[in-house]
Amino acid sequence: MYAEIAIGLASRKTFTYKVPERLMEKARPGQRAVVPFSGGTKTGFIVGFSSGDGPFDYKEIADLPDSSPLVPDGLLRLAGWISEYYMAPLGMVLAAAVAPGVEEDKPSRPRKEVREAGQPASGMSEGGREFVLTAPQEEALGKISGAGGFVPFLLHGATGSGKTEVYLRAIKPVIEAGKGAIVLVPEISLTPQLVRRFCGRFGDRVAVLHSGLTPSQRRQQWRRIRQGEAAVAVGARSAVFAPFESVGMIVVDEEHDASYKQEEGVRYSARDAAVMRAKLEGCPVILGSATPSLESYHNALAGKYTLLELPDRVSGRPMPEVRLIDLKAGRPASELADRPQGGQLAEPLINAAKKRLDNGEQVLFFINRRGYSDFIICRDCGDVPKCGSCSVPMTFHRKARQLKCHWCGAAHPAPSVCPKCGGDRIKYVGGGTEKLQRELMRLFPDLSVSRIDKDSIAQGGGFVKLLDSVACGETRIVVGTQMVSKGHDLPGIGLVGVALADYGLNQPDFRAAERTFQVMTQVAGRSGRGDIPGEVIIQTYMPEHYSIECASRHDYRSFYAEEIKLRRELNLPPFSRLALVVVRGVKPEKAQSGAAGASEIFKNEARGRGVEVIGPAPAPVFRVRGKYRYFITLRSKSHGKLHEVLDAGLKLIEHKKAAPACKVEVDVDPQGVM
Ligand code: ADP
Ligand code: ZN
Predict the structure, then answer these.
(1) What long-range pairs does 618-621 form, CB within 8 A, spacing at least 24?
(2) Closest CA to ligand 1's atom 17
């Protein structure tokens, strides 16, 4: 008997090994296998068996270290699908799926309880509180509970409409029946409240999987799931791989969120993998969002997904009133946004904030840029300091007194004079969270203004602490990036102010309008969640843009109607399938010729197959981390055809060495195209 072993290498092949007599009985798919490999040994997974035909004298498996398969059957099949669909080596998919560190575990090690962040905290857990469901919640739950087997649901519910409550109740009978439930959230460290609610409801039957776990904690969580101690796995992307023997329900909260797509290594979408896992396990899957992705809503209208709607907020709370301020007409208080002391807020927004603050409420300001100014420019020679390894300007961070590259993380001390000509007339262009925080401190000197962004979390605080200081009312004014927009329930916030809605709209990405609509709706949803009716003020240069205008009316359907028309006209997803081939090289001319060679091959393969090959074109950000990048886009109505062309093309590129000194990577269903 011969076994096919997937090893965590860049190769898309599996390797054939002979199963020795003594291991014959034990060998099963999903089992880890220690095998001799180029002079040493490697650990892989048995993924199948074969007759072992071929010219080779196959080596023998050295050992099968576990008594039973580490990877259950459903998970093994999911890994197989991901490997095929996203063109990633199965060994790498399995390595990503299996909690890192699980391999080294000694089965007899005594377990120790870990309580990590996110476990029930006093005062925040729900205890035994049970609501009477609203009629739409009841209806949605009824349909979910009535689904026997694989049914994908799209739960479209306004912010605060009680989606989470539906998830909780849908899961309860599943775990009572002895099955596992998987709950995916976009970024677990940013959703402490949701985690607490799950822990509050299901206690120690919850396993929380997040990137902050130590290898041993991760190992422990994986075992708790594998051995059936934990019945609910809550986590970001990788929780889709939770090793339940049998899964009875999968939830993907905020299904539209771009972070479900992994952009490095195995470039898979955890949302789409969740739907596939549900299909393989024969269970329902709930995709929930206030702003569903175009793809999912399109699927719902086409009858592929069952649409469930929660149109209103619970307890009769109104949706917040949204006002737009046209910056073209009513300029910010001080037009000179480029001066360090220049303001980014217009008079009406400042006045509205004053009123709310006088009334004892909290105010949240949103800006989708961190740092102080987007870049600096010398007024004398015009020089803009750029990153040494990326073709982007450096962002000025005032507190750290640094210029930082937001693409690769490089940082240098900020210059006080122009590094090129020595001139001291430096202009600070654009504004981020730091500049806005300073402006608010000046406007409201007696109140605490805290900033929640990647930098302030790193500098101390931590997200949970910062969020808690808002939740308990200690912080009156918050300035934050996208982080603060995600699903938090902050009942004290009466007003949300958006400093500039336009940032995202000007990105060279066909999802720019969709993302803008989503972010505006999400951030607006942070206001008026308590007893005070909420209010939202959005500053923009494009108030007439449909993404902003529809968000201001909480009108998803009109937004969808506009956007889907454009996608149809331009033949973009969901009307076509895309794959992005990225060719990277250290030398720009190598990258260029490699991209030309690769695209030539794809064009040949695409002929007569209904696949379009566009490019190569330099990436919008040409150089990142020292590598020059070219994009080749493949487009087709059929994923199958796209896949054929990619597969054949990649093999030929490797065989003919068509892109020497370059790395060629494929991104199927790309999210960002920067
Ligand atoms: P969403 O997930 O859609 O943003 P949540 O499930 O977080 O909404 O609900 C918003 C708030 O309303 C939460 O504080 C939740 O506990 C509460 N809630 C949910 N359902 C009900 C209900 N049927 N009656 C009263 N309160 C509810
Ligand atoms: Zn850089």
Answers:
(1) 619/582, 619/674, 620/508, 620/673, 620/674, 621/390, 621/391, 621/392, 621/407, 621/674
(2) 162
Largest CA distance in the chain: 83
Which amino acid is it at 215?
P
Does any ligand 1 atom lie closer than 6 A to the CB of residue 124?
A: no
Q: Which of 320, 258, 325 is nearest to 498 (CA)?
A: 325
**How many Cβ atoms are within 10 Å of 575's Cβ, its own excluded?**
15
- The residues placing their C-beta within 5 Å of ligand 2, an ion, are 387, 389-390, 405, 407-408, 410
Q: Please write the tens of the pLDDT for every residue from 16-68.
A: 999 999 999 899 999 999 999 988 999 999 999 987 676 678 899 999 998 88
| Closest-lying ligand 1 atom to the alpha carbon of residue 126 | 16
649 near 607, Cβ under 8 Å? Answer: no
Parts of the chain belonging to CATH 3.40.50.300: 135-315, 317-371+431-566
- Class of 577-668 per CATH? alpha beta
Ligand 1 pocket, residue 552 CB under 6 Å: no
Q: Tell me which architecture the domain covering 2-97 has in CATH.
A: 3-Layer(aba) Sandwich (3.40)
Which ligand ends up closest to the CA of 626?
Answer: 2
Ligand 1 near 292 CB (within 6 A): no
* Residue type, position 98, single letter: V
Q: Across the chain, how many H-helices and E-strands are there?
A: 17, 26
Q: Is 315 in the pocket of ligand 1 (CB under 6 A)?
A: yes
Query: Could you identify the residue written with the tokens 């190569």?
Result: 616
Alpha helix locations (H) across 59-162? 73-85, 90-97, 135-145
**Ligand 1 contact, 161 CB (< 6 A):** yes
Q: What's the CATH number for 317-371+431-566? A: 3.40.50.300
pLDDT digits (tens, 9 = 90+) for 559-605: 999 999 999 999 999 999 999 999 999 999 999 999 999 999 999 99
pTM of the model: 0.90
CA distances 575 to 268, 455, 571, Å, are 20, 39, 6
Contact indicator for 674, 619 with CB cutoff of 8 Å: yes
d(CA 535, CA 397): 31
Backbone angles phi, psi at 85, to 5 degrees: -65, -45
Write the CATH number of the domain with boundaries 135-315. Answer: 3.40.50.300
pLDDT at site 341? 44
List of residues 6+ apart from 651 with CB closer than 8 A? none
- Above 70 in pLDDT, residue 215? yes
DSSP string, 584-612: EESSHHHHHHHHHHHHHHHHHHHTTTTEE
Task: Give start-end residues of each CATH 3.40.1440.60 domain in the chain.
Answer: 2-97
Is any atom of ligand 1 closer than 6 Å to the C-beta of 314? yes
Can you tell me the distance from the alpha carbon of 78 to that of 75, in angstroms, rounded to the nearest whole number? 5
Pairwise CA distance, residues 183 & 204, whole Å? 15
